[in-house]
Amino acid sequence: MFEKALIMYIYAETPIHPGSGTVISGAVDLPIQRETHTKFPIIQASSLKGVLRNSACWIGIDDKCKQCDKKSEVERCEILRGIFGSPEGIGGISITDARILAFPVRTLKGVFGWITCPLVLDRYRRDLDLAEIKVNWNISKPTSNEEAKVCKNSNLIGDYVYIEDLQLKCSEDENVKNIAVEMAKALPDNNVYKEIKEKLEKDLVIVSDDVFRNLTFFTTEVATRIKINPETGTVESGGLWSEEYLPTDTLMYSLILIPSRLNNLKPKEIVKRLQNYNEKILQIGGDETVGKGFAIIKLMEGR
Question: Which end of the chain has a smaller Cβ tally under 10 Å, C or N?
Answer without folding.
Answer: N
